[in-house]
Amino acid sequence: MKSDLFASEHLAQSAAATPGMTLQNAKSVKYTVNGEMLARQGSMVAFRGNLQFERKGQGIGGMLKRAVTGEGLALMSVRGQGEAWFAHQAGNCFIVDFEPGDSLSINGRNVLCFDPTLAYEIKMVKGAGMTGGGLFNSVFTGTGKLAIVCDGNPIIIPVTAQSPVYVDTDAVVGWSTRLETGLHRSQSVGSMLRGGSGEAVQLMLRGEGFVIVRPSEVTEAVANH
């Protein structure tokens, strides 16, 4: 049988000698498991080998792991030996390699999977009050890899002390943890076009670092698991 479908770039290769994650392609991550790893519940699209999947939704520890991904998204642990593939709604996947001293604040909706060697802590975004968007973000630290998923091609915007950046709360993916956060209120352009008088609220980031933004304000309807 012949087809471009069977081109080498689409073919899953044999198991990697070194455990861990790699990009299968722009839309999916392959993880060679030898022990344990953690992933967004429901993100596994295929696996082979001797793997067990456990929901992280029970008990106090499970509650914390559930909260890390926010918006009702739970985590699952994957244990054993084998390979698993992860994706989410054909979003673009990126792997962030953490070295000692690195830290990143990431919105839970953008977490795909990560090494168990990474530590994470759920933090309320300072100054965010009770608005939507990146209200509770997870701060990842330690050594290891984190796979994130982004709706569209991300925009990386440098932030300097002289030039704070204002981001739609539904579009922000993550930012350098050393940045200060706050809320900025402005007249909503959309509201003005419709003849209304509502205010729009942006997340303000200031200091030295960067912010990751997705080119979409669409929020997902997420069911609790």
Walkthrough of the structure:
This protein is mostly beta strands and 225 residues long. The chain has two helices and 16 strands. It has helices spanning 59-68, 189-193, and strands spanning 20-25, 28-40, 44-55, 75-86, 92-98, 103-107, 111-114, 118-124, 136-142, 144-150, 155-159, 165-168, 172-176, 180-187, 199-206, 209-213. The strands form three sheets. Strands 1, 2, 3, 4, 5, 7 and 10 form a seven-stranded antiparallel β-sheet that branches. Strands 8-9-6-13-16-11 form a six-stranded antiparallel β-sheet, with helices on one face. Strand 1 (20-25) and strand 2 (28-40) form a beta hairpin. Residues 130-134 and 221-225 have low confidence and may be disordered.
What's the arrangement of secondary structure elements?
Elements (H helix, E strand, L loop, with lengths): L19 E6 L2 E13 L3 E12 L3 H10 L6 E12 L5 E7 L4 E5 L3 E4 L3 E7 L11 E7 L1 E7 L4 E5 L5 E4 L3 E5 L3 E8 L1 H5 L5 E8 L2 E5 L12
Antiparallel strand pairs: 1-2, 2-4, 2-7, 3-4, 5-10, 6-9, 6-13, 7-10, 8-9, 11-16, 12-15, 13-16, 14-15
Task: Name the descriptors.
single chain, 225 residues, mainly beta, seven-stranded antiparallel sheet, six-stranded antiparallel sheet, 7% helix, 51% strand, disordered C terminus
What is the alpha-carbon Rg in Å?
A: 19 Å
pLDDT < 50 stretches: 130-134, 221-225
Instruction: State the helix count.
Output: 2
Q: What sequence of helices (H) and strands (E) makes up the elements?
A: EEEHEEEEEEEEEEEHEE
Q: Structural class of the secondary elements?
A: mainly beta
